[in-house]
Known about the structure:
- It is a single chain.
- The protein is of the alpha/beta class.
- Helix content is 37%, strand content 25%.
- It has 15 helices and 15 strands.
- The strands form four sheets. The chain has a seven-stranded mixed sheet with strand order 5-4-3-6-7-9-8, sandwiched between helices. It has a three-stranded antiparallel sheet with strand order 11-10-12.
- Strand 14 and strand 15 form a beta hairpin.
- The longest helix is centred in the middle third of the chain and has 18 residues.
- It is globular and about 65 Å long.
- The site of S-adenosylmethionine has 19 residues, from helix 2.
Amino acid sequence: MKNLITEHSCKIDIELPPKDVHAQMEVFYNPVMKSNRNIAILLLNSVENEKMNIASPLAGSGIRELRFLKELEAGKIKNIFVNDIKENFPKVMAENLKLNAVKNDLRDKLIIHNDDANLFLLNQVKNCIGDEFCGYFDYIDIDPFGSPNPFLASAVARITREGIIAITATDTAALTGTYPKVTKRKYWAKAVRNYMMHEIGLRILIRKVQLQGVQFDKALIPILAYHKDHYFRIYFKCVKGKEKCDKILKEHQYLLFNPKTLEFTVSEFNQAEGFEYFGPLWKGNLSDKKLIAKMKKENPFPEEERFLDLLYQESKNDRVGFYDLHVIAKKYGLETTKLEPILKKVKGVRTQFSWTGIKTEKSVKEVVKVMKK
Ligand SMILES: C[S@@+](CC[C@H](N)C(=O)[O-])C[C@H]1O[C@@H](n2cnc3c(N)ncnc32)[C@H](O)[C@@H]1O
């Protein structure tokens, strides 16, 4: 049965997913991903990029692109190319355009395709119309079921200099150590199943995408990377140049972790006595501090405020790894303590990866000492 859904500026008439979201729906709409779409809009309104040729190769219901049309600031969009492999996608997209009374000048910016995502991305060079559009995109949003791997090569091939690639990955089990063989095959790394699994998974995914880029001299620099609900999401800015790529490769290292003491360190080597290793992973920043500050300031979505604040806090000390007060308390036989006073004493910041987590330069011994007091 169809339902009329309102998501911020847009309405769509759509069949809702059953409890276990799956690919069998007529066209895909997942209400949980509203936040993912909110943040995409906020980010695109906060970056300097203008007059963008936008590509959405896996558009589902098309709600994201309808919202782009309505909620992106004037001057941001040159064209939006939407595509989905589902047969009825063009019909649904056309109906929803009508339902939302999208004005003709905006409607003209939308180009609807019904193809395989890779073919769609690669084939647009055939439709080159000079300066207006030459088959390359300034923003590509890869939002698949599961792993983004099948679409990375074509996204990297078709992104412009200074363009932005956004990637969602919902195959969190593969990135958080549930299936070590799968992680190795798909992400060329070793993940972990402990309290740091989401940060390590996110950093493993960043490196994997970057490796796709460097082979074409495209340096993919994360400007925002996070884990939320059931997915990972990363926005990369694409910068061209061999040196930039070499720099990226230097940032691919290992996290060494001592499960007995909870000490950890980052190293270019994967061996040290008493330590397990995870990675290789991206050890650079997860976000552009200035961008997060701007997003936080200009955020029109009250429901994202708390999360943006967390990302902002974390961006002030954007380092690899964190301590979790509950885990430390259990390991060292201590009482669990409130986070705020400890944060102050160890000059730490909160992290998106745990409500009881702290990012700090201090050693585990120093944190334990403060907790004992
Ligand atoms: C997670 S949904 C997209 C959700 C959408 N981006 C949103 O924000 O609501 C993934 C979509 O990819 C489509 N899809 C799967 N494989 C595809 C392929 N090879 N080429 C194009 N579309 C594909 C599915 O039909 C589905 O609609």
